[in-house]
């Protein structure tokens, strides 16, 4: 899959895109990830990318005659049709389900907004989806773009150690429960010990224990996810 991230701040992405699962996704060849500097598409001798909003609102907006050519450039340089995502606090929520759906696409272009946002004509002309990572306002779309790339890359086949590992994660499990508590060594730490059942090798008992813990945890923390 190809992901192109269009941003005013390409330097923010080094580090995050060069480590851990995103790095692994790139090394396995499953993910071709490029960061496209929006400034290169700026207008005039100062390569201006933003301007004042009409109607006298505060702040600046990214210009449509900068963002649209940048995204069209991305489209032109890839063979497969792209799905365009504008990061926006007003967009549909980025969920595990959406991450899974996006991981099945061949080509994504994610546009990181900045300032007070992006001229509305970008969304209309590019038929882009707006996606939000939560009900709060960040300074720019760079962190949301990183969040989306991370969540999508680990779902690409062969990226996690086992393709089954993601299936047990919260929000991915078939039963809809959150994952329950997990333990590793040491067996005893301060006055807390690992539950005996997890160390006795009875796989059925372990599965039942884990399921019960997952139910209890979900009811306590996210009753909105519980249907029974
Ligand atoms: C300061 S915000 C603009 C907020 C905008 N004025 C509004 O009220 O909806 C600047 C940019 O950050 C990004 N952004 C901020 N919060 C976000 C969120 N929760 N999810 C996704 N993108 C976000 C978007 O790209 C947005 O264009």
From TrEMBL:
Query: Where is this protein chiefly located?
Result: cytoplasm
Q: Do the record's keywords include S-adenosyl-L-methionine?
A: yes
Q: Which Pfam families match?
A: tRNA_m1G_MT (PF01746)
Q: Which SUPFAM superfamilies match?
A: alpha/beta knot (SSF75217)
- GO terms for CC? cytosol
Name all tRNA methyltransferase TRMD/TRM10-type domain ranges: 1-227
Tree of life domain: Bacteria
Q: What is its EC number?
A: 2.1.1.228
Q: What does this protein do?
A: Specifically methylates guanosine-37 in various tRNAs.
Instruction: Please state which protein family the record places this protein in.
Output: Belongs to the RNA methyltransferase TrmD family.
Query: What is the protein's name according to its record?
Result: tRNA (guanine-N(1)-)-methyltransferase
Native source species: Sulfobacillus acidophilus
According to the entry, what is the taxonomic lineage of the organism?
Answer: Bacteria, Bacillati, Bacillota, Clostridia, Eubacteriales
What gene does the UniProt entry assign to this protein?
trmD
